[in-house]
Amino acid sequence: MAEVKRVERPLSPHLQIYRWHIPMLTSILTRVTGNALIVSAILVVWWLLAAATSDAYFAVANGVMTSWFGDLVLACSTLGIWYHYLAGLRHLYYDAGKGLDLPTAEKLGLACLIGSVVLTVLTFIII
Asked: Are 94 and 112 in contact (CB under 8 A)?
């Protein structure tokens, strides 16, 4: 039988030595914000269903939604909505075949991150 010759191959990089890039971070954040928006949508639907059910049940749901926890969840949801919107626009730009080089992708990623914070602050100033 033939002898098996082992080839020394490098291992995949681990998180401790791998350098984070803006496009990688924005890709992960797009997935995280999408899932977080599902959770916050369920919370808002629960609040609306409680309003349609009874006064006592609505008082419980409204207490949760108007507490510091509810305010935090809704503020983070606003940030997530703006980020997810801007990331979707960025992906439409990518789908047109533009902005795929690394410097442009990093600038677009930073624009999504900074833009979502600015738009969230503007949203709370206007509301």
From this structure: no
